[in-house]
C-alpha cells in the first residue's frame, strides 16, 4: 500500500448514533477508513458493528451523525444510494437465486440487453474480466446450487464489483468457509485492496483480523473503544478491548478419564429431505468422560446424523444404542428421557420457542414433570424459581424470567439452551455448533460447561464447523465426509491442515493437490 | 408491543373504523352524527335492545373464542362456520329426540352438539397431521359439506316439521332460555305486566348462552395459561420444530387443538338452537356466525377473554346498525364497512407505529423526504 493511497479518506462516519426506541445501538461512533485499506470491525454479538454497517449501506437511517464518502457528504437513505456511491455489501447469508447460473445472478437487476433480449455473452465477458482482475475464480455458467459455498461467496463479491463497488463491506465472511477456503478468501481480499478497493470486514474472529486487516476498530456495547493498527497489537489485546476484561484462550481440562461405552452408532443410514443418503452407513462409539468432536464441512450429513440420533429424523437402517438400550427411531420424548440431551444446531428453529418467556423455555422438556406441573396444572411459582436459579447460574441477561426469549441476544439465547440441557444432566450431550455466532466471551463460557460435563464423567458429542473449537475441546476427533467417518484421530495429533484435508475428502497420505 | 399499547391501538382502531363509517355516510348524503345517535339509541335505548344485543353477540363471542384458541395453537380455524352448523344440527336432534329432565336435557344437548362438532373438526386435524393438508383448505370444504348436511338432515321425516322449511322444535326441557317457562306462565305474565323494565328485558330470547360464553372464555384462558395441555398446544403453535425437539407430540396436539376449537364452535351452534331459534332451518347460504367469529377474534387480538367485549361490540354494531335503514333510510351495510375497517386497522399495528414515527419526527423538525 502506498502512502499516497492512504491519504484519501474513502469513508468517514462522524458521530453516528442509532437508537431503536430506548436502546442505543450506536453511540456517537466515529469511523475513518482510507482508500485501499482493509479495516476490521470487531465487537461482541450485539455490540453494534452490524448496525453501523447497515447505516453505511443505507438499510438504517442514523438517528444523528454524518457520513462522508471520498470527503463528500452523502445522505444514504437506501441501499440504491449506497451502491451509487460505490458501496457494496456481502451479507453473511448469501442472497443468490439457487437455480440461476453464476452470471445470471451477478447481472440480476442490471442486465445487459439488446433491446428486450438479454445479452448473456456480453455480460459474461464483463464478469470474466472482473473475475480475472481480482483473482475471483468462478465458473460462469454453473448453477448456484451446484457450486461450493466458497464460490458462492466469490459470486457475491463479484456482484458487488459488477455494480461498481469501490468500498466492500463483508459481514462475517468466514463463518461458512473451510480453512482452505478462508485462505483463498484472504488472498482475494489482499488482491482487492492492492488494486485500490477499500474493504471493511465485520468479524469477531481475532485470528483473521491478524491475518488480513491493516486497521481494526473495536466496538463495545454501541461505543467505539479504539482504532488500532493491527501490527501493533496481539490477539489477547484485541480480545480484551472487545470484551472489556481478560479472556482466557486456553481451555483447561483435566486428563481424560475414559469410562464405559455409552453411545453406539452402528452402520446407520439416514436420508435427507431430497431422499438422498445423507448419512451413509456411519458407525461411531462414544465413551463416558470424553468429548468426541466431529469435524466436517457443512452438508456432509452432520445435521441428518444429529436429527437421526435425537429421533427427529427416520433412521433407514442400522441402530443407535444408548447405555445398552436401543433408541433407534424412538420418539424424541423417549430419547430425552433415556438420558440424551441436545444443544441443537439451529437455536431459533429447534432450540427455543421465541414467543415463550425464558422461564417457559427452561422447562421445554420437563414441563410435564413435578415440580413444574402436577396433574396437568402448571406450577408457575416453581417454574419461575427454577428459572431464576438457572438464569443466575448461567448468567443470562436480562435476568428476568418473564422476558420473551426472542428479545435476547444470540449469546443469551444459547445460554438458555445450555442451561436447560446441562441441567438435565444427561449421560450423553450432543452439542451441535454450540458457539455459532457467539463472541469470545460467550464462547469461553460455553466451552467451560462442555468440559465440566466431560469432567463429571458424562459423554459429549461435539459437532462444529470451527476447527479450533473441535481441536481444543475434543479428546478424539472424527472427520465426517459424505455421510461417513473417514478417520478418527487423537486430538493431540490434529492440526487444521490435516483435518482440512480429511474434511475435503483427501486422505492425509494421498494429498490430491 | 406492550399490553397497554395493544389496548390503546385497539380502541383507536375502533374509533378510526367508526370515522370511516361516518365518512361513507356523509358521502352518501346522511348526517353521520344523526346516524350514530340512532345506532346508539338502537343499542342502549331500551332494556329490550340491550338484551337483543347480548343475544346477538353470544354466538359470535363463542365462535370468536374458538378461532382465538386455534390461533394461539398455530391453527387458522376458518371452519368455525361448519362446526357451528354441525353443533346446531346435533343439539337440535338431542333436544328433540331425547327425553330428559329440564336443565340436564339442555346440558346434554349442548354436549352432544360440542362432541359432534369436535369430531367434525378433528377430521381437519387428522388430515393436517397425517397428510399435511392445510387446515384452511379442508375446513372451507367441510363448511360446505356441513351446510348441505344440514339441509339433507331436514329431508328426514323424523326431523322435519310437516309443511315447513324447518325441523321440529326442541322440547321445552332442552331450552336454555332465562326464565323461559316462567315468562309464558300465568303468574309470570301477570308479574311482568306490572314491571315494564323486566318485561322489556326478558322480551327477547334471553338465554344462558352468554353465561356459557363467559365461562368458556375463562376456561380457554385457563387452559392456555395454566395447564400442561395449554403449554404443549402453544409450544406447537409458536414453533412446532422446537416443540418436536422438546419431545412434544405435535401430530397429536394438532388433532387435539382442532377438536377443542371445533367443540367450542359447536357449543355456539347449540346455544343458538337451544336458546334462540329452537329449531334448525334449510340453509341457502352461510349464516356467517363462524366468519364473524374470526372478525371478533381479530379485534380481540386473539385473546380469549377479550372476545367478550369484542363480540359485544360487533353484535351491538350490527344490531344497532340494522336500525339505520328503517329509521333514517341510511344503508345498514355502512356498519359492515365500519367493522371491516376496524378489523383492518387492528390487523396492522405497524400503521400506528408509522404514524407515531412521523409524528415524533415532525416534532423534532426533521425533513421527511
Automatic annotation (TrEMBL), chain B:
- Which InterPro entries does the record match to this protein? ABC_transp_permease (IPR001851)
The molecular function terms of the Gene Ontology recorded here are:
transmembrane transporter activity
Name the residues that span the membrane.
7-29, 49-71, 78-98, 104-127, 139-159, 206-224, 254-274, 305-322, 334-352
GO cellular component labels:
plasma membrane
Q: Where in the cell is it found?
A: Cell membrane
Q: Does the keyword Transmembrane helix apply?
A: yes
Keyword vocabulary terms for this entry: Cell membrane, Membrane, Transmembrane, Transmembrane helix
Protein origin, superkingdom: Bacteria
Keyword Transmembrane applies: yes
Q: What is its main location?
A: membrane
Report how it sits in the membrane: Multi-pass membrane protein
Output the PANTHER family linked to this UniProt entry.
Answer: ABC TRANSPORTER, PERMEASE PROTEIN, GUANOSINE ABC TRANSPORTER PERMEASE PROTEIN NUPP
Give the protein name, as stated in the record. ABC transporter permease
Species name: Tissierella pigra
Amino acid at each position: 500500500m502506498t502512502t499516497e493511497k492512504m491519504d484519501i479518506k474513502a469513508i468517514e462516519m462522524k458521530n453516528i448514533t442509532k437508537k431503536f426506541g430506548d436502546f442505543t445501538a450506536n453511540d456517537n461512533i466515529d469511523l475513518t477508513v482510507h482508500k485501499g485499506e482493509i479495516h476490521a470491525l470487531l465487537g461482541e454479538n450485539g455490540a453494534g458493528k452490524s448496525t453501523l454497517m447497515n447505516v453505511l449501506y443505507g438499510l438504517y437511517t442514523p438517528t444523528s451523525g454524518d457520513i462522508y464518502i471520498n470527503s463528500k457528504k452523502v445522505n444514504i437513505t437506501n441501499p440504491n444510494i449506497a451502491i451509487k456511491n460505490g458501496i457494496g455489501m456481502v451479507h453473511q447469508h448469501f442472497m443468490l437465486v439457487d437455480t440461476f447460473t453464476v452470471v445470471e445472478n451477478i447481472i440480476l437487476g442490471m442486465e445487459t440487453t439488446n433491446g428486450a433480449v438479454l445479452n448473456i455473452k456480453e455480460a459474461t465477458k464483463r464478469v470474466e474480466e472482473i473475475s480475472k482482475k481480482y483473482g475471483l475464480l468462478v465458473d460462469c455458467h454453473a448453477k448456484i446450487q451446484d457450486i461450493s459455498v466458497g464460490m458462492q461467496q466469490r459470486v457475491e463479491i463479484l456482484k458487488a464489483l459488477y455494480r461498481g463497488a469501490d468500498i466492500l463491506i463483508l459481514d462475517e465472511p468466514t463463518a461458512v468457509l473451510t480453512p482452505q477456503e478462508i485462505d483463498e478468501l484472504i488472498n482475494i481480499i489482499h488482491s482487492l485492496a492492492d488494486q485500490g478497493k477499500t474493504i471493511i470486514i465485520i468479524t469477531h474472529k481475532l485470528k483473521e483480523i491478524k491475518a488480513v486487516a491493516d486497521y481494526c476498530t473495536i466496538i463495545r456495547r454501541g461505543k467505539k473503544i479504539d482504532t488500532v493498527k493491527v501490527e501493533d497489537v496481539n490477539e489477547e489485546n484485541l480480545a480484551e478491548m472487545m470484551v472489556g476484561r481478560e479472556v482466557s484462550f486456553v481451555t483447561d481440562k483435566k486428563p481424560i478419564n475414559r469410562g464405559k461405552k455409552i453411545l453406539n452408532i452402528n452402520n446407520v443410514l439416514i436420508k435427507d429431505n431430497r431422499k438422498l443418503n445423507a448419512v451413509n452407513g456411519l458407525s461411531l462409539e462414544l465413551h463416558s468422560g470424553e468429548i468426541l468432536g466431529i469435524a466436517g464441512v457443512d452438508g456432509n450429513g452432520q445435521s441428518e446424523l444429529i436429527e437421526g440420533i435425537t429421533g427427529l429424523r427416520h433412521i433407514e437402517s442400522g441402530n443407535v444404542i444408548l447405555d445398552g438400550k436401543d433408541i433407534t427411531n424412538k420418539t424424541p420424548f423417549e430419547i430425552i428421557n433415556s438420558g440424551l440431551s441436545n444443544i441443537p444446531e439451529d437455536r431459533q428453529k429447534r432450540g427455543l420457542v421465541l414467543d415463550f418467556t425464558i422461564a417457559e423455555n427452561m422447562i421445554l422438556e420437563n414441563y410435564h414433570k413435578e415440580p413444574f406441573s402436577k396433574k396437568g396444572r402448571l406450577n408457575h411459582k416453581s417454574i419461575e424459581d427454577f428459572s431464576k436459579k438457572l438464569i443466575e447460574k448461567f448468567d443470562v441477561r436480562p435476568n428476568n424470567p418473564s422476558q420473551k426469549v426472542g428479545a435476547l441476544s444470540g449469546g443469551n439465547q444459547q445460554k438458555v439452551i445450555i442451561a436447560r440441557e446441562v441441567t438435565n444432566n444427561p449421560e450423553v450431550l450432543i452439542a451441535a455448533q454450540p458457539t455459532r455466532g457467539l463472541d469470545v466471551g460467550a464462547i469461553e463460557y460455553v466451552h467451560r460447561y462442555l468440559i465440566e460435563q466431560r469432567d463429571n464423567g458424562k459423554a459429549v458429542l461435539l459437532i462444529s464447523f470451527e476447527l479450533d473449537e473441535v481441536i481444543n475441546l475434543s479428546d478424539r476427533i472424527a472427520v465426517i465426509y459424505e455421510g461417513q467417518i473417514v478417520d478418527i484421530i487423537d486430538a493431540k495429533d490434529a492440526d487444521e491442515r490435516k483435518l482440512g484435508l480429511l474434511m475435503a475428502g483427501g486422505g492425509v497420505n494421498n494429498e490430491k493437490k | 408491543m406492550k399490553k397497554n399499547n395493544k389496548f390503546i391501538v385497539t380502541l383507536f382502531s375502533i374509533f378510526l373504523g367508526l370515522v370511516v363509517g361516518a365518512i361513507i355516510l356523509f358521502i352518501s348524503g346522511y348526517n353521520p352524527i344523526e346516524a350514530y345517535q340512532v345506532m346508539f339509541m338502537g343499542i342502549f335505548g331500551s332494556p329490550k335492545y340491550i338484551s337483543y344485543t347480548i343475544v346477538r353477540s353470544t354466538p359470535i363471542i363463542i365462535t370468536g373464542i374458538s378461532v382465538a384458541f386455534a390461533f394461539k395453537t398455530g391453527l387458522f380455524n376458518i371452519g368455525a362456520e361448519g362446526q357451528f352448523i354441525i353443533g346446531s344440527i346435533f343439539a337440535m336432534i338431542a333436544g328433540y329426540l331425547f327425553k330428559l329432565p329440564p336443565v340436564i336435557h339442555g346440558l346434554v344437548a349442548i354436549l352432544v352438539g360440542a362432541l359432534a362438532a369436535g369430531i367434525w373438526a378433528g377430521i381437519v386435524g387428522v388430515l393436517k397431521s397425517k397428510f399435511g393438508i392445510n387446515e384452511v383448505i379442508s375446513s372451507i370444504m367441510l363448511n360446505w359439506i356441513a351446510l348441505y348436511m344440514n339441509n339433507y338432515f331436514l329431508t328426514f321425516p323424523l326431523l322435519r316439521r310437516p309443511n315447513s322449511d324447518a325441523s321440529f322444535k326442541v322440547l321445552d326441557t332442552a331450552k336454555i332460555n332465562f326464565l323461559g317457562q316462567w315468562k309464558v306462565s300465568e303468574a309470570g305474565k301477570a308479574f311482568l305486566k306490572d314491571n315494564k323494565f323486566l318485561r322489556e328485558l326478558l322480551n327477547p330470547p334471553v338465554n344462558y348462552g352468554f353465561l356459557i360464553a363467559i365461562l368458556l372464555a375463562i376456561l380457554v384462558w385457563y387452559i392456555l395459561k395454566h395447564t400442561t395441555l395449554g403449554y404443549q398446544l402453544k409450544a406447537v403453535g409458536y414453533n412446532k420444530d422446537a416443540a418436536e425437539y422438546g419431545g412434544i407430540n405435535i401430530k397429536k396436539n394438532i388433532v387435539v387443538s382442532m377438536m377443542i376449537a371445533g367443540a367450542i364452535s359447536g357449543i355456539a351452534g347449540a346455544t343458538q338452537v337451544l336458546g334462540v331459534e329452537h329449531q334448525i332451518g334449510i340453509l341457502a347460504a352461510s349464516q356467517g356466525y363462524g366468519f364473524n367469529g374470526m372478525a371478533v377474534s381479530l379485534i380481540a387480538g386473539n385473546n380469549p377473554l377479550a372476545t367478550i367485549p369484542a363480540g359485544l361490540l360487533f353484535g351491538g354494531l350490527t344490531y344497532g346498525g340494522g336500525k339505520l335503514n328503517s329509521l333514517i333510510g341510511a344503508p345498514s351495510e355502512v356498519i359492515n364497512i365500519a367493522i371491516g375497517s376496524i378489523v383492518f386497522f387492528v390487523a396492522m399495528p405497524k400503521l400506528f407505529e408509522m404514524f407515531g414515527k412521523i409524528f415524533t419526527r415532525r416534532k423534532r423538525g426533521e425533513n421527511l423526504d
